[in-house]
Amino acid sequence: SEMTLLWLSRQLWRHRVKGLLVTLVKRTSHEDDRRAAATTDVRPIPEDPGKARPHTSTRGHPTESKRRRPPPLAFLKIHKTGSSTVQNLLFRLGEKEKAAFAFPYYTYQFAYPERFRSQFVDELPEGAAQFDILCSHMRLDLAQLRQVMPQNTVFFTLLRDPVRTFESVFSYFTATVPAFAQAKAAAAVARKSALSVFLESPESFWDPGEIRNGLAKNPMCFDLGLNSQGWNASWPEDLAQLEDAFQLVMIAEHFDESLVLLGALLGLDHEDLAYVRLNARSAGSVATLDEGTVGRLRSWNALDVLLYDFFLQLFWEKAELYGLDRLERDAALLREAAERLRQTCVARRGVPPGDLEDLLRPWQTDTATVVGYELRANLSQQQQGRCVRLTLPELQYHTSAGKNLLIANIPGIVRHSNVHLRK
């Protein structure tokens, strides 16, 4: 089947990059030895104290000895919401904290689109007492997830405007979601865009009994384990259960502010939260949407609109508790920290996949071009390690299985670059 062929191609691609990844060796920096004792405290997002807070350097952890280890984390990675950027941040945090990752036993997703089951998780790493971080794609089942993660786990996720989410889902999965593939075939005959043909009559392409069509209607609801096909009597209770389970639902349109609230929840500072945006499409792969198309998208994804609006309101309630002025200040500091890191690491952004070697090339589909980053030349060994991690795509990080990586000086990571690997 087409899905089987897609899986096989991904396996071949993952084995191809594995040859590069096995050349990376474990590194223990002196900073790792200055970690604070672990704590199991889960702290709520603090309210604005209304007074000056102790000065925190934007260059690191001046009080590293007092820094608490973050609690266990479960991040529900929802498709095409910007979640790959958050996942990369968690991978880097987990490496720094020597966390035990709950990785999928099979490929890089938890048997998606099946509902999550505890048996989908690989074995606990040797020497670990519990899983500390889970952040791979799944279709949520809260009861099963709680069997895997410790009782004090912080649950959080990321939502995005439903119109842009669906446009991105359609662009990325046109060839693999059956409803989209049928629309694409019809569009070739009609000489129209596949998205416009689909939206003219989505019910004619969408078979709700086909699980591979899960992303074809209300994809965020589908990933969250909700009934995504239509409103039913259980919806209010299911939504309330999600509100109770997730300490934070981030909003992509307020990404930096969301990260600030996450940092407050987990005890992280701006340096911990610095990022570059990953898994972004080229400008030519993003559809321009007119008013009529937006209306049809909102109508077809009405439950995602409801979901998004509900958690957007909750987000601003949390923001007000934190303090809106304070949130704005801290988001500006985060952007400064992220820009410093980008200036250190990135020579060129939006790099076409053909200019990238396997290790830093994002997974490509037949219908969307996903761009990446070219790193600066002449980085120090320590900078190389940090910068490669910063820009390492999802599948490559899964292939490395959460191990600490050492980037050294042998040609090959980025074409036309002096960033290297050493055996």
UniProtKB/TrEMBL annotation:
The keyword Lipid biosynthesis does not apply. GO terms for molecular function: galactosylceramide sulfotransferase activity. Keywords: Glycoprotein, Golgi apparatus, Membrane, Signal-anchor, Transferase, Transmembrane, Transmembrane helix. The keyword Glycoprotein applies. It is found in: Golgi apparatus membrane. It is a single-pass type II membrane protein. InterPro entries: Gal-3-0_sulfotransfrase, P-loop_NTPase. Pfam families: Gal-3-0_sulfotr (PF06990). One of its GO terms (biological process) is glycolipid biosynthetic process. GO terms for cellular component: Golgi membrane. Residues 32-71 are annotated as: Disordered. Belongs to the galactose-3-O-sulfotransferase family. This is Galactose-3-O-sulfotransferase 4. It comes from Denticeps clupeoides (denticle herring).
